[in-house]
């Protein structure tokens, strides 16, 4: 199924399935399969809306004897709704409602892996609703923890890494008081480090780089009585991520990591034994990283990120000139 089919082509395909001699069960499966084709690599938001329509048609065909497929159609709709680029909470709330309806059936009738996948997606939807004060971070973490009972590092290292990443980010986004800030940042660092005990560079480079990059970010902003030590650890984590991320194969991830590393270098004295001597060398290195990141972001049309880097670069130029 090729993505970005026109609406009329989708409608024609739906009509063809509806009038085909296939059994109801076969029609439901065909519709959901078509929807998944749109969801895998959507080129436009319309592809995702097409997936919603196809799943809705599959849902409508389901009766009492197709409860599991009805639940799968709900999950398909929820995933498509969550993926539609939209700044509001309405589509997310609908996605949550679909998953609320699907979960009990999935838990009762599906395999443990399908249950865990649904829990993982439920956690993501809840996490996306937190900024609107429509869900609690603790509930999304709980959904991820349930998924981890199935997605162990031995059998499912990729899902294991992504779940730990999501849990750590959920900790970091917890709206807590200043007293508990140290605790949540610490929990995030611990979560990244736990995952990195099992996710290795050689076997899972992509997940390894993601975890190292995000560990660096958590360390960089960790409130601590040893801030310098944390900056050094953060830089080491970014360097690990850069063993995988490079300008040729993963330009945007690479640009992200070098700008994160540049942020850390701003706070690192050139000589830790003589911090009073300043950090001109590190500032110049940071400038080179920001410059490279800005070029990559601009080249790939990441305007917002390019603007942020440009602003930091401007402030840095002033600091270097005055220094």
TrEMBL record:
InterPro entries per UniProt: TPR-like_helical_dom_sf
Descriptive protein name: Tetratricopeptide repeat protein
The organism of origin for this protein: Brasilonema octagenarum UFV-OR1
